[in-house]
Amino acid sequence: MADWVKVGSAGEVGDGEVSSYSFGDRQISVANVEGDLHAFDDVCTHQQCSLAEGDLDGAIIECPCHGSRFDVITGEAVTGPATEPVDVFEVREQDGELQVLMDA
Amino acid sequence: MPDFVIVGGGLAGATAAATLRDRGFDGRVVLIGEEPMPPYERPPLSKEYLRGESDHRFVRPEGWYEENRIETRFGVRAERLDVSERVVELAGGERLRFDQALIATGSRNRRFPWPGLDLPGVHDLRFAPDADAIREAATAGRKAVLVGMGFIGAEVAASLRMLGLDVTVVEFTSTPLERVLGPELGRAIEALHRDHGVEMIFRDAAERFEGDGRFEALITREGRRIEGDFAVVGVGVEPVTEVAGDGVPIDNGIPVDATLRTAVEGVWAVGDVARHDHPVFGPIRVEHFDNALKMGEVAAGNMLGEGAVFDDAHWFWSDQYDAQIQMSGFATDWDDMVVRGSIEERSFSAFLLKEGQLLSAFSMNRKFDVRRAMPLIAARAHPDRELLADPGFDLRRLHPPKG
Taking the model in full, what pTM does it have? Predict the structure, then answer.
């Protein structure tokens, strides 16, 4: 069962920015790509670094540890060393909240 | 469909194989590796793997090759490329015909003719079994003698100290990593290791290894006798070029043009073995992980006709204790160094310039500067010194426009 959960406030992730949020034992990042929000698992599938600490360039985020690049829209590992994708989630701004659709 | 053969089962070769399939190539791909294990990442062998904190990281999962119809010959040495017959000859007699071949044979550790080098207890580190042997010897309270303090020596020193061993290093130059970093940054690495209790002896070198049936002491050129329970030698690598036979020219590795092609049509080389005609740095052979990965990707694309120039600005990392070290670009001599942050507090970046052109960036515990410097290095930029020195200035603002 998936539910919309509040992770932050609407409008707090500006264009070209990425922010990271804890929810339960997961770390979720939200990136703003040209006005559209995209949520993805913050943990790099290579060696578990925080992707939100890397640089976002368009829809591509680069892991600050070893340079793996992920597409924040699809979760795909675009260049290695990571080969496995990160999970992506639906995200929306509603009632002044930033919400991510998560499995309960 | 053409047949592609990849000689070398490391990161570069495996990445090339994966990229060929990613780009939709449907023909025969054979991946030959001398090591019996599927391709794995080597950087952890001196760090978390050596410390027993992680298992192997395979470049692709073990079952991936079969699922993707990559034929593998692991544990088999490729003897020779016959470029006139367009055949790779393998140990054991198998002959693989190819339309295009990729040489990704990597490098091997340099071995000097030191007496006693073959004594049990004298290790070097390149392959997974080497790391296993050091790990087995590395119990807390024992004493390790290291020869050489380049990146391997520095990382092994850090890992062994973290495991609670006494560590003494003998290094020929006057600081760690002096040839790569110069003396000033080398001293920053030295201070890091000194604070973590590594005993370092500079301007001295190995003369011979002594012991009655196994290693007991290193005798140095200056006449020191350094006793220990085991030794680890890390004095650089040399490219593995034998497979080139007499058909592919060799000159400090296998020379390739900007697109990673050798002098022979349809034969390419990548990774540690490739001496690449880099558009910015000139002819250069690079022995780092990220270079092997990216060259593998680009060469695979070019085997499919993409014609891409490889112009990556090169980047690598090294983790020592809690210090995260990164470096990008390439500089053999520079006339200016701009420091951002504090070397003393071990949170800094250093930019190496020559006649105002940014050649290289180095950082300790500053995550972004080195990677953000890469587009500037590739563009031969002459950035303002004050902006480089300003910790609050985002180097992306100086990036050339895309497209």
Answer: 0.93
